[in-house]
Design goal:
binds zinc ion; 480 residues; alpha/beta; two-stranded antiparallel sheet; ten-stranded mixed sheet; Alkaline Phosphatase, subunit A; single chain
């Protein structure tokens, strides 16, 4: 890590500059000081980005970094693995514990801790589901103080992580209520995914209500580009499925997460400052499915969004705080020795042609195709490392068995395939293992997750602490 980027208000350089303020060489020295220190008299961070990579532990970040190094080496660059990711280059790093009052956390309880500084049980959105007490989020505090607020996610807008910032619910599945609370929040910008309609289709349409409240509804790139200062908007990716943005690895047309962040910066920027939360929501889903190639691409898309915030920060370093963290780790991802051979790692993972979901759709007992045909198609999709092992053949038979005839409740079946298509899982497992990636579970783990920060107040994010500490530190940094 380069020491020249380490921020400290208490560094020797900072003190020296103060003393020399009126000296002949002071102007030059003072300019140099700005590189090393932030203004000690700063009233707090006025432009604040909080990035949450859902399910993103240290291994997920490492995997993306190795992949990117391999990608650059394959195109002729001689690069070290370090700092391929913008988030890994931030000068302050810490770790947070993630457990909730229920034990291993879900995104609702972890999000609640990060957003409100209060712990709760799994499934609850920014409240105590037993007493009914509602917790106030950092976004709401910022909004009450006159800052503009943006909530950006690649998942759907009422999903747990975005919802803890604007709403409250005893259960995270109360999508109808959360959709209305989103509009009622008055936050200026919601973007990325769309709304998930509650089953039964009852209740008021949040999009119609939002229009009545003066939000512009944007559904294409031209609209996104047209957004400017002072507006309020809900910007939804044109290719959403189940309310979520498409998988980065599927390379569908439309804005990237970084594009939504850039548009948000234009819309939110102003004298009063802003707070923007950005979630990489599908890192978690890729890791639930043990799909390393999709996870890496989601982390990269998320990191590109971090890069967009850092571009803004470069212009206003004294006033801009960027914090990148996660709510929990998903999958128990671990990198074995071969994973550190970045060129091979990149070669294997970049050979996967799309997300596990894209392949899963092509596997069906009703298609009546042969095992040989299935394996040929799998090797085209996942690469030759998806070898026809006994495990892959057994999974093929299972996938060709009608769903209601599979032993889906047996412990062994659940351990091998979880809720996913058996053949897809087995093929990915072969390919991932060749690349040096192994997984322990289809669910969340209790692992600590990294925090990276840069900007005024970022020093306080160093060290190890509970996830509620993110709220405390943001609040202090923003003087709220
Ligand atoms: Zn999850």
């Amino acid at each position: 890590m380069s020491m020249s980027r380490t921020p400290s208000r208490h560094s020797a350089a900072g003190v020296g500059c103060g003393r020399l303020r009126f000296g002949a060489a002071a102007a030059l020295l003072a300019a140099a000081c700005l590189i090393f220190t932030w203004r000690a008299d700063a009233a707090g961070a006025r432009f604040v980005f909080l990035f949450i990579g859902d399910g993103m532990g240290a291994a997920q970040r490492n995997a993306a970094e190795i992949y990117m190094a391999g990608m650059r080496i394959s195109s002729g660059d001689a690069v070290p693995r370090e700092y391929q990711l913008a988030m890994n280059s931030l000068p302050v790093s810490g770790m947070i514990r993630t457990d909730s009052l229920s034990g291993t956390t879900d995104s609702a309880a972890a999000g609640t801790a990060i957003a409100t500084g209060r712990r709760t049980t799994n499934g609850a959105v920014a409240m105590n589901p037993d007493s009914g007490e509602k917790f106030v989020s950092i976004a709401t505090l910022a909004h009450e103080r006159g800052m503009r607020v943006g909530i950006v996610t690649s998942s759907f807008l009422q999903d747990a992580t975005p919802a803890v910032f604007y709403g409250h619910a005893k259960k995270r599945t109360e999508h109808a209520s959360l959709g209305l609370q989103l509009v009622e929040s008055g936050f200026e910008y919601f973007a990325g995914g769309g709304f998930r309609r509650p089953s039964g289709g009852s209740g008021r349409d949040p999009v119609e209500l939002a229009k009545l409240r003066g939000y512009r509804i944007i559904r294409d790139e031209a609209g996104l580009r047209s957004l400017g200062p002072g507006e309020s908007a809900i910007a939804i990716h044109p290719g959403i499925s189940a309310g979520m943005m498409p998988w980065a690895i599927d390379e569908k047309p439309g804005p990237s997460l970084a594009d939504f962040v850039r548009a948000g910066i234009r819309l939110l920027d102003g004298e009063g400052g802003f707070f923007m939360m950005v979630e990489g929501g599908k890192i978690d889903l890729a890791c639930h499915a043990n799909d390393a190639a999709a996870a890496v691409r989601e982390v990269m898309a998320f990191d590109e969004a971090v890069g967009a915030a850092l571009e803004f920060q470069a212009a206003r370093p004294d006033e801009t705080l960027v914090v990148v963290t996660s709510d929990h780790e998903t999958g128990g991802m671990s990198l074995q020795e071969t994973a550190w051979e970045s060129l091979k790692f990149y070669g294997l993972l970049s050979g996967q042609r799309g997300s596990h979901q894209a392949f899963e759709r092509t596997v069906s007992p009703s298609a009546k195709s042969s095992e040989r045909d299935g394996i040929t198609r799998a090797q085209k999709f996942f690469g030759p490392a998806a070898r026809a092992t006994d495990a892959v053949r057994m999974a093929w038979k299972m996938s060709m068995t009608a769903k209601d005839k599979r032993p889906a409740k047996s412990a062994e079946y659940k351990k091998l395939y979880g809720p996913y298509d058996p053949f897809t899982m087995a093929c990915m497992r072969e390919m991932n293992a060749s690349a040096g990636v192994t997984w322990r579970t289809f669910y969340h783990t209790g692992a600590d997750v990294p925090v990276s920060a840069y900007g005024p107040g970022s020093e306080s994010f160093a060290g190890e602490y509970g996830n509620t500490g993110i709220f405390d530190r943001l609040r202090a940094a923003m003087s709220l």
